[in-house]
């Protein structure tokens, strides 16, 4: 996450090959390709042919155990509706909140932080309060967060020209015109942050659906086109903005809607208690939140279930799934369904569903490097929670043990390294699934060893996960297009919940849609409830 405060306070080379770094690569450390649902999900291309003989019954079937599905379960449980089942294709629940458990530390497999919620993200604040992360309230009604769970300093640094600097804007070598343009850009960001329409709505809100229509025309052009129209041509500014787009959306300036690009910067106004830009993080990232939500689901979660058919039948819904442990098809009869699976799967699973071809998804690589001890900090700003390399194809790495002040600079740790792919996702995706662990290992070391020559001798293990459909891509026309709005509408007794229904992949968006779908179910069942939205 780009730190505006570091940029504002600071105003006043990756890509080398291993051989060029002159390093001694230790070749004996183990590792593996960690499974994701990609290959299991491809079972949808050849679902079971025989009808299910085994039958089950439940009031509400929740399909998918990502944040949206678990949020639907959370809301139903809070309102006393306990007759539900959560079905998950993976052996580990959580979607992008999954995490690794190493003897040295837990570490995320994707989502690794949660910014303090905006005023509009009421459901997220309700959850954080329930989990004990809100210690109290100010006289004006703002939350006071438990600072032990907020990211400690130093939080961000950038590597350029052989040294590290604070924040994620490349100050080293910046010209006066570069600095003028970055100031002008953030002045525009602050203008949008403080601007409200006649109904008191922001143009860029979280959840997205609560945004005013004021800036929606920006959704029709790319972020690159918008920046050019404003005269913002600085390569450093454009890299800085594109890094945010790659990090949150998996898109380039050319493939990001200008509305989504501005939303990244302008949606989180400094109007809640806590320092500007404050975020929650844990060794396992958002896996901490996942574990708390799973405790509330308990035995109603069933993993290893490949849902391959959903259809309304009479006064209910039939959910056919493959029990992968037994190799046995099962029919689950439900009164209602919360469909919390990615939208791109609907045409293969849900009878009568269109394909929703405007929805495209970015592939990612995530790697966890288990180390004997942290890498040497290098020249300049010290090792931080988030460490980024200028002009690298990767997004850098976060340090799992950053919150542990005792072991931050000594003892074992885990670095979680990320790369999103902004190229044509369909071509990249199949190539990633055919690659070997060794090829990923070499790519990751080629990215990191030039900035950390001591790294190879410290690696105990290196595991890699490929996420073929990691997040929705907010390409021009998607966020405020008609297809996204249609995709969120209930289909009879089937209610939809997923972050992709917002056009951007954020925890708060997934939770919003999960809670919204749960409230639709409660309303249809005649259950009175207090809205969390």
Helix and strand layout, with pairings?
Elements: H1 4-10, H2 18-21, E1 33-34, H3 37-41, E2 54-63, H4 67-78, E3 84-87, E4 99-101, E5 106-108, E6 114-115, H5 122-130, E7 134-137, E8 143-145, E9 156-160, E10 163-166, H6 176-194, H7 223-229, H8 235-248, H9 258-266, E11 279-280, H10 287-297, E12 301-302, E13 305-313, E14 316-323, E15 328-339, H11 346-349, E16 361-371, E17 386-389, E18 396-399, E19 413-420, H12 425-433, H13 437-448, E20 459-472, H14 482-487, E21 494-496, H15 507-524
Helix pairs in contact: 4-10, 4-15, 7-9, 8-9
Task: Provide structural commentary.
It is a single chain. The protein is an alpha/beta fold and 533 residues long. The protein is built from 15 helices and 21 strands. Among the domains are: 146 residues, Polyamine Oxidase, Chain A, domain 2; 153 residues, 3-Layer(bba) Sandwich (FAD/NAD(P)-binding domain). The strands form 5 sheets. The protein has an 8-stranded mixed sheet with strand order 1-20-16-19-18-17-9-10. Strands 2, 3, 12, 13, 14, 15 and 21 form a 7-stranded mixed sheet that branches. A hairpin with a 4-residue loop joins strand 14 and strand 15. Helix 8 packs across helix 9. It starts with a helix and ends in a 9-residue tail after the last helix.
């Amino acid at each position: 996450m780009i730190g505006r405060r570091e940029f504002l306070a600071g105003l006043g080379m990756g890509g080398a090959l291993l051989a060029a770094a002159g390093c001694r690569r230790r070749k004996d450390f183990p590792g593996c390709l960690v499974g994701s649902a990609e290959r299991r999900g491809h079972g949808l291309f050849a679902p079971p042919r025989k009808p299910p003989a085994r039958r089950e019954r439940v009031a509400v079937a929740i399909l998918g155990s990502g944040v949206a599905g678990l949020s639907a379960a959370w809301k139903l449980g809070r309102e006393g509706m306990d007759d539900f089942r959560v079905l998950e294709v993976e052996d580990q629940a959580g979607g992008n909140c999954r995490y690794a458990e190493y003897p040295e530390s837990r570490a995320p497999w994707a989502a690794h932080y949660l910014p303090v919620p905006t005023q509009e993200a009421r459901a997220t604040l309700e959850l954080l309060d329930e989990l004990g992360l809100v210690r109290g309230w100010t006289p004006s009604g703002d939350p006071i967060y438990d600072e032990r769970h907020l990211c400690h300093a130093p939080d961000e640094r950038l590597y350029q020209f052989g040294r590290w600097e604070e924040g994620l804007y490349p100050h080293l070598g910046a010209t006066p015109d570069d600095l003028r343009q970055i100031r002008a850009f953030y002045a525009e960001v602050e203008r949008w942050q403080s601007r409200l329409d006649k109904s008191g709505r922001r143009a860029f809100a979280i959840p997205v659906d609560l945004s005013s229509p004021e800036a929606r025309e920006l959704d029709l052009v790319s972020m690159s086109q918008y920046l050019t129209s404003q005269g913002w041509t600085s390569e450093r500014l454009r890299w800085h903005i594109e890094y945010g787009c790659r990090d949150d959306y998996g898109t380039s300036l050319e493939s990001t809607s200008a509305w989504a690009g501005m939303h990244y910067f302008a949606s989180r106004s400094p109007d809640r208690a806590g320092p500007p830009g404050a975020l929650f993080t844990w060794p396992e990232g958002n896996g901490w939140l996942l574990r708390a939500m799973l405790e509330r689901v308990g035995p109603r979660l069933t993993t290893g279930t490949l849902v391959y058919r959903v259809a309304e039948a009479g006064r209910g819904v039939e959910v056919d799934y493959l029990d992968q442990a037994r190799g046995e098809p099962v029919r689950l009869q439900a009164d209602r369904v919360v469909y919390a699976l990615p939208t791109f799967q609907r045409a293969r699973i849900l009878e009568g569903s269109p394909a929703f071809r405007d929805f495209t998804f970015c592939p990612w690589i995530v790697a966890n490097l288990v180390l004997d001890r942290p890498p040497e900090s290098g020249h300049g700003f010290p090792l931080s929670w988030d460490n980024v390399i200028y002009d690298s194809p990767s997004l850098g790495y976060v340090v799992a043990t950053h919150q542990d002040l005792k072991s931050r600079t000594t003892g074992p740790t885990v670095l979680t390294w990320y790369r999103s792919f902004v190229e044509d996702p369909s071509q990249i995706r199949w190539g990633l699934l055919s690659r070997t662990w060794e090829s990923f290992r070499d790519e990751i070391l080629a990215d990191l060893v030039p900035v950390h020559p001591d790294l190879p001798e410290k690696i105990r293990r290196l595991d890699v996960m490929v996420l073929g459909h990691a997040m929705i891509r907010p390409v021009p026309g998607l966020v405020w297009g008609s297809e996204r709005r249609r995709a969120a509408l209930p289909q009879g007794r089937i209610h939809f919940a997923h972050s992709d229904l917002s056009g951007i992949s954020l925890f708060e968006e997934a939770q919003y849609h999960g809670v919204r779908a749960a409230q639709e179910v409660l309303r249809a069942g005649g259950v009175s409830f207090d809205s969390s939205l």
